[in-house]
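User: Could you write out the 3D structure of this protein bound to calcium ion? I've included everything you need below.
Assistant: Certainly. Input first, then the structure.
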Amino acid sequence: AKEDGRGVARFFQADMDAKVQARRELEMDLRAALVRGEFELHYQPVVAVESGEVSAFEALLRWRHPTRGMVPPDRFIPVAEQVGLIVPIGEWVLRTACREAANWPATIRVAVNLSAVQFKGGKLAAIVASALAEAGLAPRRLELEITESVLLRDSDSNLNHLNQLRALGTRISMDDFGTGYSSLSYLRSFPFDKIKIDRSFVKDVAGSQGDGAIVRAVAGLGTSLGMITTAEGVETREQLARVVADGCTEIQGYLFGRPVPAGEVQDTLERIRLM
Ligand code: C2E
Ligand code: CA
Ligand code: CA
Ligand code: CA
């Protein structure tokens, strides 16, 4: 049994070493990616229910890796957050999104995802202000999406930052609503402009009575608090009909369009106008 134990320990050690090694490689690759310009933003349309037109595009980060192809964000953002690289990467995202959105019609906003790590260090508001000024983008056209992790840790200091961002004139959205532990209490701690109802509730909105009731309740709550409520991950006409009936005021999902490179934003606008 003793022998076995050592064998298992050695096995885990080797496994750990491999994991540490893979992470180090990913970290080095990420550093190089920023310098080599391997990141790009893809934009997914968000449609306003009332007008049936695009109100915004959400900027979603993509990594065009020279050998591994297009790497999705879930594969590298967690490591970028752990090693702090999300700070310079996030700054690149903000500057690029503002610059690209400045070429769109003035009625269209751009939404950028912020990591909780970007709130550390106290420079976020200055970076956002300079990204807006550099691009000549009106602050009202920038939406900043945060998840509850921003309000979970260092919440006093982060709330202070959120207020600074709001003071610049940007809009603040609560992303992935309903997936955390106490989403409702976060609605009380900050006056969000928008609630994005997580895709997991929209998925079964037509099939499960419970999910339908939740979407309806959140949409009602958001509306009575003066917030926009966006249904995420709408893929079918049936889901669209349900979330609209449930009172959501904006729709995002593959039904209206997948994220596209910046060069396809105009085409997407025209295609949705004709829908
Ligand atoms: P998110 O902010 O919740 O973004 C929505 C995700 O759902 C995107 O995945 C989008 O492509 C996907 N999606 C949209 N509509 C549908 C649909 O109808 N069906 C399905 N199955 N999926 C849909 P993506 O682009 O892979 O991004 C994943 C996550 O990575 C994002 O989730 C966000 O948390 C993070 N992320 C992306 N870009 C950035 C960034 O620039 N900075 C930070 N900090 N995080 C980012
Ligand atoms: Ca988001
Ligand atoms: Ca989301
Ligand atoms: Ca998410």
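The radius of gyration is 20 Å.
User: Perfect, thank you.
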